[in-house]
Amino acid sequence: MSRVHRAIALVAMSTLALTACGPSDDSAGGGSEVPTATPTTSTSPSAPAQPPKPTPPTKPPTTTPSTDPDYNVFPCSTYDVTFTASLAEPTTSSYLLKITNKSAKPCRVLGHPIVTFGDLDGHATERGTAPGIEEAIRLAPGQSAYAGLMGGPKDTKSKTVSSITMTMNTESDLKQVPLKAATPHLNVSDANSVTAWMNDAEDALSL
C-alpha cells in the first residue's frame, strides 16, 4: 500500500471514530429536561381598607322621677314660716304658738319648737312625744301648725319676760334666724314646757 492510500485510510477511520463517540440528538441537552415555566396569575390590586365607623355616643340612663309626693319635701326652718304667740290661759300663763308656711312649696314640721325666753338662759322642755319623720306634719303653702307653751308657777325664783324666740327642729346643722313673738307677763320657771307641733290648736293646748 502506498503512502497516499494509507493516509486516506487513517483519515477515514478517524472520522468514523469521532462520529461514533459524539453526542446523539436525543442527549444534546445533557439528558435533563428543560423545566416548564408556570404561568403566573395576575392579581388585581386590593381595595383600600375602610376606616371603622365612629360609635354613636350612648345616652345616659334616664332617671324615673319619684311618684312619692313627699320626695322633695324638706324640714321647715324659720326661713319658711311666720310665727305668732297668743295668750291661751291667763291663770297658767300658757300661750298658743302658731307657724304658717309662707313659702311657695310644702315643708315638713319636725318634732318640738325650740323656745327660749328673752335674755334668760335655757329653753322650754319638751312635753310629750313627737311623731317620727315619716309621720310628721306636711305643711303646704299657707297652712299652719300649732304648739302649746305651758307657763310655770310663780315663786321666788321665777321671772317674767315679755317675749320669746323660736327656732325649728330641722334635724340638721342648718343655721336659722330665731323668730320673735311678744308674750306679755309670761312667767318663766323650771316648769315651762312646750308640746310638739300639731295640726289642731285645741290638741296643742290640751296635752
Q: Layout of SSEs?
A:
Elements lengths: L2 H19 L59 E9 L4 E8 L5 E11 L7 E3 L9 E3 L4 E7 L8 E11 L9 E10 L4 E3 L5 H6 L1
Parallel strand pairs: 4-9
Antiparallel strand pairs: 1-2, 2-6, 3-5, 3-7, 6-9, 7-8
Walk me through what this model shows.
- The chain is elongated and about 105 Å long.
- 12% of the residues lie in helices and 31% in strands.
- The chain has a five-stranded mixed β-sheet with strand order 1-2-6-9-4. Strands 5-3-7-8 form a four-stranded antiparallel β-sheet, with no helix packed on it.
- By secondary structure, it is mainly beta.
- It has two helices and nine strands.
- Residues 1-19 form the signal peptide.
- Residues 23-71 are annotated as: Disordered.
- This is DUF4232 domain-containing protein.
- Residues 76-197 form the DUF4232 domain.
